[in-house]
What does this fold into?
Amino acid sequence: MPLTHEEFAGLTHLGSGKVRELFAVGDDAVLLVASDRISAFDVVLPTEIPDKGAVLTGLSLWWFDQLSDLVPSHVISSSVDEYPAELAPYAEQLRGRSMLCRRLDMVLIECVARGYLTGSGLKDYRRTGAVSGHPLPAGLEDGSKLPATIYTPSTKAPIGEHDENISRDDAADRVGGELAAELERLTLQIFGRASDLAAERGILLADTKFEFGHDKDGVLRLADEVLTPDSSRFWPADTWVPGGAQPSFDKQFIRDYLVNTGWDRNPPAPELPDDIVESTRARYVEAYERLTGISFKDYLSTA
Ligand code: PZK
It folds into this structure.
């Protein structure tokens, strides 16, 4: 059954991402719900990937735990049985795929770190030789490892539009110099911890996006989903070759299938056949299990 905000008719809907929903819970909390929807070439597909929402939620929760000595997170609980009573009618739809979080005052920029050059960073580099004010050496290609990890903040674009990279000076103008410096420091520190961990498990973390916010005591917390395949680019380490697009850890079967159909990348996208759905689901589960060392079945049985 598809999961849209219409199925949570009793809750106050705060917003939709392409594949996620956000609800208010009382005055001080929000509920983040990850659906099984998937996008490819920026279009949400008509076919869902079973358990995708639970895999991404489980990964975020595991990362929040790994990072808790560096930065506090927004998570209050992911145990549906501990959620407030108003959520009880939705318990089975929420199990495994939701996080009850402190309601934060969100920081108005996205905090991006890049260890490899691709996507919008590559576009800016080809145009200007720099990304977010970091001059880069000549001769870098799609997929090149950067000489050092760079912090490339971006604006939060409305849904359907693309975030735009901004300079660190522009970021400081938007959020204030002191907070801008703290966001950069935290983003690079978290990215370093995460990419070391992923590399030990044969996965390259090319880039990732973090969101932060302040709680009611003014404490800066890591928010949103973190270090999932939807907020990051994960590449298998053993096939990495700079000089072109790298295979995506999670979506490569889907991209190959869609290209093969001749689809022109305008909505609506074609349905996916069962074998592509099943192999993609297996890749998500593999990402969870390789990174965390936890069996996905065990995660589901504790959610
Ligand atoms: C918040 N988003 C992104 C948009 C989604 C997610 N803890 C929080 N407190 C207040 N607001 C947010 C958060 C978090 N995380 C998250 N925008 C605001 C977003 C739409 C759907 F699932």
About this structure: The mean pLDDT is 96.
